[in-house]
Each structure stands twice: as C-alpha cells, then as structure tokens.
Amino acid sequence: MASKIKHPYSIVRGGKLLDADKRVARPADILIKGDTIAEIGRPGLAAPEGATVVDARHRLLHPGLINAHTHSPGNLGKGMGDQWSLELLLTASPWIGGGRTLEDKYLSAMIGAAEMVLKGCTAAYDLAAEFPLPSVEGLSAMARAYEEVGMRAVLAPMVADTTFFEAIPGLMERLSPALQKEVEAYRYAPWKATTKQMRKALQKWPFEKVMLAVAPTIPHHCSDDFLVACRDLAREFDVGIHSHVAESKVQVVAGYKRYGTTLAAHMDELGLVNEKFTVAHGVWLDDEDMKRLGGRGASVAHNPGSNMRLGNGLADVRGMLSADVNVGIGTDGANCSDNQNMYEAMRLASFASKVQGPDWQRWVTTGEVLRAATEGSARALGLHKQIGRLAPGYKADIVFLDLHHINWIPTNDPVNALVHTEDGTAVHSVMIGGRMVVQDRKLLTVDLAKLAEKAEASRVRREKITAPAKKLYDRLEKVVGTFCPGLAKAPLHIHRFGASHHHH
What is the pLDDT of residue 389? Predict the structure, then answer.
C-alpha cells in the first residue's frame, strides 16, 4: 500500500467493502479524489491514468471508528488506579493530572491518538482539562499532536468554576478544617477568565483537522452564570457543547439537592440542550430526560467500559434509541477505562445491554452498536456529513482489516464479527482523508520508541512533583470513599447498577 499519494486520484482495489445494512462484505473498488471518496463500484472500476493504486486484496474495508468521548490528558495517567469510583477519580485528579507542561499535554494527546489510529479509530471528541483554566497554548499543543498523527478531533476545553468538594452537597463539611484548607488550593479560575480564554481560542483557531467545542465538565460543577456563558459562546461560534450528565448516581442525587430536578432538565431550562449538545455517559438519565434529549436532537456518548470500571452502572441504551436520542460510543479517558480501543468499546456496548434483563428483543443489536460507533459518533462530533460512512462525498477514512487474521477465519456475519470478534489486532492499515497513517500494522507518522522515551521521562519528573498531591489523595480517599457511596444509597426512581439491590 502506498504511504504518500502524490497524484490527486487514488484507487483502492481488491478489497471487500462492508455493507452493514445487508450484513455482507462485497468486492468493490473505491476511487478517491484528494481526501474524499469520488466513486464506489465493482472490481475493475475505471480510474484516471496515473492514479495511485492501493492494493486491498484479503482486506475487509470499513469506515473509521469514531470515539465520541475521550480525555487526552488521561493517557499519561494510564494504569494509575484500580478501585476508583468516579468521585474518587475526581478526587485523584490533582495527583494523576498534575505537574503538566506544554510538552506533557502534547505527549499525552499523541499517545492517545497513536493508540486510536492503530486500533481503527480515525476521529475523536476529546474533552481536555487544563488547570486552573484552559490556554490557547495548551489546546494548540494537543491539536498539534492530533494533526501530526494524522487524526481528526473535536477538542473541547473541559471547564468548571466550582470545585468537586463544593459541588457535592455536604462533602466539604465532612472534611477536617486542615483538609478544607488544602483542597482550597485546587480552586478553578473565575468563570469570566475561563470564558475569555475559550473565546480567544475560538477566535483564532488555525488547525484544519482539529475543531473546537465547549465542555462545561459537569453541570453542578459550574455556576448557572457559567453554564449560560458556555451556551452563548457555543452559539456565537456555532460549535458543540459536551458535558458529563448523570454519569453517576451521586451526580443525580446532587443535582436534585441543588436544582430540585434532573441535571438534563436543568441544562435544558438554561437553553443548552439542542442538536449540538452531547451528554457524556447518561447512565442515570430517566425516561423524561431521554425524551427531552431526543426531542431536541441531542446526542449521548455511551462509554460502557468506563461506566463499569468506575462502578457507575449500566446505561439504558435501548431506552435512548427508543426516545430518538442519537447515540455515539466512546472509550472515555485512559486513566479510567485503561485503553482507547473502540472495538472493545463496541463489544462492551453490546454486552452491557445484554445483561440488563431476559427480554432479548430489547437488547441492542450489533448493527445498532456499529452504527453508533460510526454514524452516531460522527453526528455527536458535528461531522456526520463528512465522516462515519464509506460513500461518495464522504472523507476517505478507511480501515483495512486482514481477512487472513485469525479473528476473521471464517468470515460469517461481518457486522457481528466487527462488534463481537474483532479486538484491534486484525487492523492492517488505516487511511484518513486519503492518506495512509497506518500501513502493514506500522504507524507511519510517529516514532513509538521515541514517544515511549519521552513519556517515561515525563512520568519520572511528574512523579516527584505530584507526590504531595498523592499524599493528599490518600487522606481524602477515606472521606470521599465513605461519603459518596452513602449518597448513592439514597432512594431514586430508576436503577442502573448491575446488582439488583444495595448491600448495606
């Protein structure tokens, strides 16, 4: 396969193109002009003289998978914790995310992008945090990493103006005066300063493959004034809004205590919910929330691996689809889901649906899962007219799977195999915008050995810097790890935990 396409045309010959609706893979040739699919036809499709030929014999061709929700800063925090609830993870953030230089932000984004493309993912919605507020330099460093890898992304600065300890009613009061004083050091910048920084980035954004969005991290971690400012900024610059809504039961209980209503209802009242709005997780959305989101054309980024890993529960994806919610699939950050493997995320999305009850007709099908991980995620990113399908007029973001790999011997139903059998190891090559980024299982755009060296140097340096934050976490863990599970035992009209009852 050719790594650089000099001629404006290239043609992919000899491959089997996935037809997800008919659940078959048929021989087809794909003519590409520049970065866009011009025509798909039978083998032997005519191509302009001099067109670069891409040999796709023994390959299954499918659209690049699209990660609807990740956090690039999490890649340097890979494997740092085990028994973390969402609330303990948030408590640990100064430790696992502290001491970051511009180079670290770039490195962390590059590690994630490299993993994603090697595992068949060609675009991602990345909610990236910087403390105490986002910076144009930091966002640009992350965007540069994506562009150097060759991957598409929507980058959303994840912002708040209320600390985690203030956002959970009653939690700050449980901390000793000494601990209260220590957590004060992790207060965010005032919301007006944060909004100013986001505006600065949105006004002069030079990147082509990386777009910006706005991410008020969790509704009750933001004052209403700040949420409204995020809404207005997104409207002014016509970009998306992405927020962690009803991820854990603790969030929902906190929302009722603070607003007297659900988090989704509160955001809707403030005018944030529309077709450019994405809910991250949505595990504890109720039926009314789902109808509200579906009625507004909003999306949910379903992250089944993270939902189970953090003990948040099992999202009702069938309920979401029935309410016309657009569902995408994501991995979440590597510090709370361990990898950036969209094939695994699809498999878990299928399985998480199937363990929720014996009514198999309510289970999410492999076809629905694959559609969510491609077209559904593309819509969440606001790129559904460009990516998520292999069709004329769409970008040439193509994954080439090796049909001689053991995962594909034999090839029965290719949709079932993509969701249930493939694990990323059969990815042979990946094309993004007509350009080979992965070829013969090798990432062409990044020297992984050098990346590993830099990441190790960063780890050693940051380990010393964040040692005090680690000690603080160890002291806070006892309080947060008792108080928050207690809140989660409050009665609620919906149940999303895997167990049928609480153990008291």
Answer: 98
